[in-house]
Design goal:
Two copies of one chain form a homodimer.
Chain A (H helix, E strand, L loop, with lengths): L6 E5 L4 H13 L5 E4 L8 H11 L10 E3 L2 H5 L4 E5 L8 E4 L1 H13 L4 E6 L7 H5 L3 E3 L12 H14 L19 H17 L9 H13 L5 H15 L5
Parallel strand pairs in A: 1-2, 1-6, 2-3, 4-6, 4-7, 5-7
Chain lengths: ~250, ~250
């Protein structure tokens, strides 16, 4: 069975030097799969790419090519479990883990051949609520509350460090998913998108302003379930049944 | 009894930006005692100090003044226990600890009112044998052997992070967070019972023999969510919407 190390996904990174320093931190701890979503200055291009390579001190040479995406959902399609590094969200109900707990969780998924990814927000604003809603688990790094701003590449370093540290303990523990395979994000997102369509059709969102918030809350419920492929099919069946004709 | 956090001591640091980034990393994890031994460009002076302050993003403002020494022995005078971050020395017999073990050792000294310091070598050559000989314990950070060079400030960050982690007993791990109260079993069961009724009405259970198994599977999905009262209400709303009239 093929085993996958976690991917590092930078959402809207601004400075090439932070992309480079993130790559260096990854290479230090044997992570090689870097993806970028909407890098401010594009990728690759001359100025930031130069700065990135200077800060990477050779890390890009031992990594596969960096992939670039236009939005978070596309970047996450192939992953079974997605972790968002961010402060605890106030208005979303998500499982919160320390970096140390999160890497153990990743190792358990890895041992089953499943794919994981870790989202990091850009320098200016971090991850937005929609990015967080697309994630399954929050990684919250405890910091000094009086001086809490951590540099992007430093966050990557800390999580990558914990990942590497945990490498000696690869025993797969039992995951609460049963026999069927964990659904990929694409399957889950398709199901949620269908639910959203049907709710729209059925006047669920009476106040259009509340539509995004309500969908984030609904998404947050499903992202906590670790749904299997079978369970996603079951939910499709539930939706089909509820919108269909009644017994006569 | 006064308790002392570990001091961070940089031996022959070269670049102001690394001194600043080290200060920032310290402040992130509530360390404030920074000492420099023979900084290449002096301290403070204009050029490196500017660069240092840019990279410190305010960390120096919450720290006591940085102390500068001419040699390692002088800088270490007041400490009870000194830790040297370095690769394992080949020709010296020293206790080697991971960062995680070392911070526990520091905490034990701290609890007794003793003072500890952590030595970091400069960018070019790291700690020399004399510096290591003056130390009590080696801190060795396991890294990818194929890409092992860690930046000075990153080493400081990792050790400071471990220090802060070891003192943090307040972060709830693995707990879903949010404002709304966890739903009682009664509320959850009423919601599931209503869903079952509606699914029955809408011909979801085509094969009556499979009805109990399918309901167990559906219940198993919901039981994994730790739903809040608000989320149970949201699901009631979803059911109501899906079985209701479409937009006309």
């Amino acid at each position: 069975m093929e085993q996958h190390n976690p991917a590092i996904i930078l959402v809207s990174p601004q400075m090439g030097e932070n992309i480079g320093a993130s790559a260096r931190a990854m290479a230090n701890f044997a992570l090689t799969d870097l993806k970028l979503i909407n890098p401010r200055d594009g990728w690759p291009n001359n100025q930031p790419s130069e700065s990135a390579h200077a800060n990477a001190v050779g890390a890009f040479d031992i990594m596969p090519p960096v992939e670039v995406f236009e939005n978070t959902a596309d970047a996450l399609k192939e992953y079974h479990k997605v972790y968002a590094t961010t402060a605890r969200p106030r208005d979303m109900r998500k499982t919160v883990m320390t970096a140390q707990s999160a890497v153990e969780d990743m190792r358990q998924h890895q041992a089953q051949g499943l794919k994981t990814a870790i989202l990091f927000g850009g320098e200016r604003a971090g991850l937005n609520n929609d990015d967080i809603a697309l994630s399954d688990i929050i990684i919250s790094i405890p910091v000094n509350p009086e001086f809490s701003s951590i540099n992007l590449a430093q966050s990557v370093l800390l999580v990558a460090y914990e990942w590497f540290q945990s490498g000696d303990n690869t025993l797969a523990k039992h995951l609460p998913v049963g026999d069927s395979a964990l659904a990929k994000h694409e399957e889950l997102n398709d199901m949620i998108a269908r639910l959203e369509d049907e709710l729209e059709t059925h006047n669920f969102f009476r106040n259009p302003d509340m539509h995004p918030t309500m969908m984030r809350n609904i998404r947050s419920i499903f992202s906590r379930i670790d749904m299997t492929e079978q369970e996603v099919r079951t939910f499709h069946g539930i939706i089909s049944a509820l919108i269909g004709k009644k017994k006569t």
